[in-house]
């Protein structure tokens, strides 16, 4: 597994890869820039989710880009 | 050079040679063999991610189904079925090619790198991953042993113990006392005794409103205490009393015949009781030599390889991992880091720093849950918390309802991540 795939294992702990909602937002169909923007915002501000804030601050810029690229490459369909 | 250092150097050199041999086998198209012992959260996650890395993985777990300890107090409260908390191993086999053997490991030979099973079979491994879970230190409280646990359950492994405790809660007379004995640190899932008190209180409030809960603690303080005490006052006023060890002198004896719990100065007759004993790493950790004098397993914080027996990795509750608590989330996080470290050692490729987290959803009532989030990093040979966040007292009811909804979603996604 490459770096992006291994980092995406962090996401799979809480986000259903099938994209089901179940109270935790799906990340199955996000574009690369949407993921980068969301993670950057979570990193900056803990108020909306302390869990995502913890994830955001633990990722380096390179890791953040890498996981966003990987997740976007796994999108099921382009809306 | 001291003798001790020479021996360590020798073990390190041997490990490097074995890793080189495994890399050669991998290049020749033969997958290195990994045996994972224990099919709880740590073991199942390790098996799944090792298989995704391309290893030939065998998981040895005697039980056909695993019942999650996390969320099992929702079952006690009548809010979830035990079936909804039970998971099999079929997807690990069919989706990931993990060979699952429902056997018990009877021996581990770290020199010949093999594991023997109760049916006489022997499995060779390049690396062994143990996820031993916990064992109970029976005998620390007079009168409480394995037989006594069949009468006054610990319910700290989910399954038949949970069913026994649920039956006793259902059978207790309205107005009688529910006594919980809470264990000393370290133990599986630090907030769980106090979460259980909330959920048992939720049940009692509806069906035995004159009953009360008494928590006799082996400690003088506990994790997230202010959040629990706030919830006890809001949801279950006057129902839950917590007595620290400094007040009671600690629990000294149990009499299962009369269902009596005796502290240094007092004794309490329980309508139903939940005795959670002191804990150690699971049995296989103790017999294989990976557990140290503390009863827990010291590990390299980057790779989760045992500091005591080379070639054996340990993940989950059995690990003594610095600041990392014993939780399902921690076990899952450690198992992934361990799987990636084994892949880097045996298959080569780039090395990436491990990412280790813990986050626990804790139930205070059906529509009131809180969470925390911790980041860990290897430092000075152990795991240090670098960041820690926790929900606070006084948050809005809507935020807590939302967290309870997230908890349900987390459970579903997490079960998929662990069991495939």
What would you say this structure looks like, in words?
The complex is a heterodimer of chains A (79) and B (420). Chain A has 79 residues and is mainly α. Chain A is 57% helix and 0% strand. Chain A contains four helices and no strands. In chain A, helix 1 (3-12) packs across helix 4, helix 2 crosses helix 3 (50-58) and helix 2 (32-44) runs antiparallel to helix 4. With 420 residues, chain B is of the alpha/beta class. Chain B is 34% helix and 25% strand. Chain B has eleven helices and 25 strands. Chain B has a five-stranded parallel sheet with strand order 5-2-1-9-20. The longest helix of chain B is centred in the first third of the chain and has 25 residues, at 3-27. Chain B starts with a helix and ends with a helix. Classes of the chains: A mainly alpha (79), B alpha/beta (420). The A-B interface holds A 1, 3, 6-7, 9-10, 12-18, 20-24, 46, 50-51, 53-55, 57-59 and B 49, 52-53, 329, 332-333, 336, 340, 343, 350, 352, 355, 357, 359, 371-375, 386-387, 389-391, 402, 405-410, 412-414, 416-417.
Short descriptors:
heterodimer; A: 79 residues; mainly alpha; 57% helix; B: 420 residues; alpha/beta; four-stranded parallel β-sheet; 11 helices; globular; disordered N terminus
């Amino acid at each position: 597994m490459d770096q992006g795939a291994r980092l995406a294992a962090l996401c799979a702990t809480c986000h259903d890869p099938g994209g089901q909602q179940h109270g935790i937002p799906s990340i199955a169909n996000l574009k690369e820039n949407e993921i980068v923007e969301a993670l950057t915002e979570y990193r900056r501000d803990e108020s909306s989710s302390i869990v995502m804030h913890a994830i955001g601050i633990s990722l380096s810029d390179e890791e953040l880009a890498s996981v966003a690229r990987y997740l976007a490459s796994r999108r099921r369909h382009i809306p | 050079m001291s003798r001790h250092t020479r021996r360590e150097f020798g073990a390190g050199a041997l490990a490097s040679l074995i890793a080189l041999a495994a890399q050669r086998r991998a290049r020749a198209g033969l997958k290195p063999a990994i045996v994972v012992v224990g099919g709880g959260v740590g073991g199942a996650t390790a098996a799944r991610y090792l298989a995704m890395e391309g290893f030939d993985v065998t998981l040895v777990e005697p039980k056909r189904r695993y019942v999650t300890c996390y969320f099992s107090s929702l079952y006690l409260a009548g809010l979830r079925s035990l079936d909804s908390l039970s998971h099999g191993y079929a997807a690990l086999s069919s989706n990931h090619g993990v060979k699952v053997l429902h056997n018990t490991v009877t021996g581990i030979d770290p020199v010949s790198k093999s594991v023997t099973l109760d049916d006489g079979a022997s499995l060779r491994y390049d690396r062994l991953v143990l996820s031993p879970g916990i064992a109970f230190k029976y005998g620390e409280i007079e009168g409480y042993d394995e037989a006594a646990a069949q009468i006054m359950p610990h319910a700290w492994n989910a399954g038949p113990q949970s069913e026994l405790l649920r039956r006793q809660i259902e059978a207790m007379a309205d107005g009688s006392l529910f006594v919980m004995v809470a264990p000393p640190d370290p133990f599986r899932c630090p907030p769980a005794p106090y979460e259980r008190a909330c959920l048992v209180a939720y049940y009692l409030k509806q069906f035995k409103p004159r009953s009360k809960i008494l928590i006799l603690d082996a400690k003088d303080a506990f994790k997230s205490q202010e959040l629990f005490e706030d919830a006890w006052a809001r949801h279950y006023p006057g129902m839950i009393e917590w007595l620290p060890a400094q007040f009671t002198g600690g629990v000294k004896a149990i009499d299962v015949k009369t269902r009596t719990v005796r502290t240094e100065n007092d004794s309490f007759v329980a309508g139903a009781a939940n005795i959670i004993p002191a804990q150690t790493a699971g049995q296989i950790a103790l017999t294989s030599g990976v557990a140290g004098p503390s009863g827990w397993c010291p590990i390299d914080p980057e790779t989760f390889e045992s500091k005591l027996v080379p070639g054996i990795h340990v993940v989950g509750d059995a690990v003594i991992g610095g600041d990392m608590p014993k939780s399902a989330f921690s076990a899952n996080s450690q198992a992934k880091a361990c799987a990636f470290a084994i892949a880097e050692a045996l298959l080569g490729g780039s090395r990436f720093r491990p990412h280790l987290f813990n986050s626990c959803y804790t139930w205070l009532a059906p529509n009131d849950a809180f969470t925390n989030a911790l980041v860990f990093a290897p430092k000075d040979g152990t795991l240090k918390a670098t960041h820690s966040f926790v929900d606070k007292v006084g948050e809005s009811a809507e935020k807590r309802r939302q967290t309870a909804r997230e908890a349900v979603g987390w459970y579903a996604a997490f079960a998929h991540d662990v069991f495939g």
